[in-house]
Fold this protein.
Amino acid sequence: MSHYKSNLRDLEFNLFEVFGADDFMGKGGFDEMDPDTVRSFLKQTEEIATGPLSDTYTTSDRNPPVFDPKNNTVTMPEDFKAAFQTLMDSEGWRMEIPEEMGGIPTPASVRWAVSELVLGSNPAAFMYTSGPGFAGILWDIGNEEQKKMAQRMVDGGWGATMVLTEPDAGSDVGAGTTKAFPNEDGTWRIEGVKRFITSAEHDMSDNIVHLVLARPVGVEGIGGPGTKGLSLFVVPKYMFDVETGELGERNGAYVTNVEKKMGLKVSTTCEVTFGDKEPAIGYLVGDIHQGIAQMFKVIEYARMMVGTKAIAALSTGYLNALDYAQNRVQGADLTQMLDKTAPRVPTIAHPDVRRSLMLQKAYAEGMRALVMYTASWQDRIAAAEMDADSDIDVDMAERINDLLLPIVKGVGSERSYELLGSQSLQTLGGSGYLQDYPIEQYIRDAKIDTLYEGTTAIQGLDFFFRKMVRDQFKAVFYIASQITETVKAGGEGDQLSAEREMLGTALQEVQDTIGKLGEWAMASQEDIEQIYKVGLNTTRLLMMTGDLIIGWLLLRQAEVAQAALDAGAEGKDADFYTGKVAVAKWFAQNRLPLMAAEKSMMLNTNLDIMELPESAF
Ligand code: ST9
């Protein structure tokens, strides 16, 4: 039986009933992706996800890849290789690449819906498909020669990596010391050691292409300190003929270690040494020294991916917990607690189990809505790019997408990990702790999501300083105005009026918090240490805004669901819509009021813990 429990009904609800993704389907540049094709593609991916991808999820955790340090090679588990090949053969990756490369233009919301199914079932398999995805980015930012390289990557089904991190340069990418020396023929020689590189070695493709940040040396005017001094290079494992794809000599990029990890064990996390055994030849991407900006095109994609992965894990964790609670008979109903002969009931009858399930449902479905809502802005950006006459405000769409990304990544990963551990596993009681059930692995595999692609602290800083202050609060004001519309909607007989009011109060708490952080940031121009008060609260603000948007989107879903119920929905649909209304109300009643306490803690901020001697910790 599949460990993976998908929620296609909810994905389709978001796509077709709430966010109107079908407005973009089968039209403009998305001609091939009409609603029927989208539905059948989702169904087909669900079959692979609950079939071969799910089958190898546990086995490859127990029998992870084997690293041979002598030959710098990795042998992958056979069943994982077969499942990965099935995924590649399904050609879902064609949705990720430009049409000129053989891609199928697809609205982002559809791509992320499809991705959720793969990421929930077998996240590492998704990550090994990075070859075509990264080739698409190289096509966009590369020169003519590199566009050909990108095409060879796709045609050959090669793997690819993003190579930023070094032993002493994690969050602080600008501390990287890997160097790039210019060769006379226009290529570069890369020297240094990179760490924590996902998918840098495996035996599932003939070649692996690394996108490497390195600091040019000995060239006038480039390669200075910090991130701005980094350039981006394409460094293949094997050199190749760009016209034919024929492989040539081994390039000097070798995996010199594969980490032993808490989870996600089938995803190789590698140390890569450049230029030790033999020169590591690299090509400057796009012939320009704008490495960090170019790499952020990859990072933005990967942050959305990590958030979606985390949320997919919570969703299957919740649905496994729900299944267990519906079937596990234990204890009598609380109303009969004094009668020792009372019939035993499934645990879902118990109030505390219901509370826990509702909490899991709220975040699993609320954060899926967050991913789909974010993707709906990416749809608009793509649609406008394909239609010069479009009246879409691309500038605002980009700002909003940028604002939402750290929430998808930061809030998605934090809430998912927290709830998988404290609620989903707990629903199974002691059995949840066993490897007989998938949840202990979900927890181990999900922990990385709060860490890679920028820790939660980095997301919080990015959210306030870059996505609000630097944006002059344009995107956040826009979202606030949209939330206000939901608060004010309703009218006579509205069944959600109390929850709208709670949403309005929560919005005010978040706005007050943003205002206070803004005041401290301004005050720091006179008294620099005031900036610490901002830093003590950026993660709090990120989490508060996440809850606000989740509460808002759940309420928007409830409006749609209530209308469907009023229109006479029946059977399974009626159950689905009833659940939607219930979860939105529950979240507003049980989670949004926490915002007042968060605001109060923010207002209590002082510099005491910054002044505390390190020895007193
Ligand atoms: C990693 C790998 O963790 C994880 C696994 C990846 C697996 C990927 C697999 C993908 C699979 C794909 C599959 C596809 C196919 C699917 C088929 C399915 C069927 N936004 O603030 P400043 C830029 S890798 C945009 O001064 P500092 C910007 O250019 C490791 N750009 O930064 C800016 O210049 P300007 C991940 C941004 O103080 C410049 O940077 N590591 C953003 O110098 C400088 O900005 C990390 O994520 C942004 N948000 O450096 C590092 N921010 O201002 C985390 C900055 O002029 N650390 N830029 O515009 C950070 O993010 C730091 O904040 C820092 C600070 C390094 C940026």
Remarks:
- Residues 374 and 401 are 6 Å apart (CA to CA).
